[in-house]
Amino acid sequence: MRELQTSFAGLTLKNPFIVSSCSLTNSAEKNKKWEDAGAAAVVLKSLFEEEIEAELVHAQQDAHAEELDYLKTYYRAHRLENYLQLIKESKQLCSIPVIASINCYRRADWLQFARHIEEAGADALELNIMSIRSEADEVYGSYEQLHIDILKQVKTVVNIPVIIKLGRNLTNYIPLVDQLYANGAAAVVLFNRMATFDIDIEKLACTQGNALGQSNDLSEVLRWTGLIAGQVPKLNIAASGGISEGASLVKALLAGASVVEVCSALYWNGAGCIEDMLTFLKEWMERHGYESIPQFQGLLNAREGNTPKMFERTQFFSNYSLRND
Ligand SMILES: Cc1cc2nc3c(=O)[nH]c(=O)nc-3n(C[C@H](O)[C@H](O)[C@H](O)COP(=O)(O)O)c2cc1C
After folding, report:
1. Does pTM top 0.90 for this prediction?
2. With a 6 A CB cut-off, is 101 part of the ligand 1 pocket?
3. Considering the chain, what is the average pLDDT of its residues?
């Protein structure tokens, strides 16, 4: 019997498959369905600071001054109350851990709400801080510092594990992640996916690109999982991005991830892909003589003596072989 148990962010999970934050986890009924399909945990759809702020801006345009204070309080409280309800209902229906997710892109003042998330019964809290920085006068490096500042602030109000989900638009991951670990992060998620951007050349308009990811998103996830696992070995990592089949799950674990957080493959292939991936993992472990995940987790991370140069390779040197050369 192969043992698929793993630990992530202080939680003991029956296997390394987590359904990541997206609309697939925005109701307790959906979350129960993921549990029944074999998922070890779910991350709830994020509660978005940005969205609440946008609603407030809209309200400000229409409202009389005296109504504004009431509206601000109402919008925020209403959104937050719905989210707490989602946590409570998911906890009632599911026996797997339920991880809450909040998006905080600018200020951390309303993160006091994190305490209510903990009280509602969330097993952990994932912070989704990703945003595009587009102001020329922003101090270089302040976006990275924002991650550390928000983590510190949230850690003062909750005792549950705090997980930081990173975007792909950060610089210097290793020192950043080292600082996150030093300031109490229980884990990091590599990486969040940005809503994509495109241009319609006939309508001469900006449009949205494809929402869902593809299997070739995996390469950078493996690179950074391996590098971070080699340099900051005590910090748990969730690989997220391009985990589309059993082989990519095995690769993520070999690079050093404790778990995978999957979204697009569930949209593409449905709930059955959870069992497919876990069955592949068990069969692969059997073929390679592994009884449990810790026996091979991080075996190919970028530690000294383990081909770290492969992870650091960025240039197509002259000896790089291409199929049609
Ligand atoms: C349609 C869609 C909605 C998403 N919503 C959220 C979200 O609310 N919060 C979040 O942290 N990540 C969100 N993500 C990112 C996913 O959780 C996941 O980290 C990312 O898509 C990479 O995994 P994948 O390649 O399996 O899709 C979303 C992704 C997609 C495609």
Report:
1. yes
2. yes
3. 91
